[in-house]
Amino acid sequence: MNAVGVARPLPPFLTKDDLDAPARRLSVLCDVTCDVGSPCNALPVYDDTTDWEQPVRRLREGELPVDLIAIENLPSLVPVESSRAFSADLRPHLLALRDDSPVWARSLRAFHHSSLFVGAPGTGPVTESEQWGRSRPSCPGRVTRSRALAGRGG
User: Which of 35, 44, 54, 59 has the fewest CB atoms in 10 Å of its CB?
Assistant: First the structure.
């Protein structure tokens, strides 16, 4: 399941060579982001989305088939179901916040690691240009947090 919002190009999470690997165990790929054609596409293994009439498309045939689900705006089309599923998945992690949860420990390490690139925690807000630098590659169609808060869209 790919539901990662990417704001700048990065190495792909999965490639066509990965799909052809003999030791591959992946059989279903669900891409909620549907960044087909974008320089920010983390899954450049397909060239067209699926839809409600044909929600699944076969990417690889044979002994190790791979099926794709890439319906644009899938969570927003089923808001109650997606909210319930997300809440059900998140609840155990929130309840473990008090404990020594490995999920929260990894999240805290990732936060501290990312903070090294934008300044020490607690030093005040960081602007988008300070965070990314002036030469940050853009991803068409993406709404950055600062633009969304300012009501300017992508």
Answer: 54
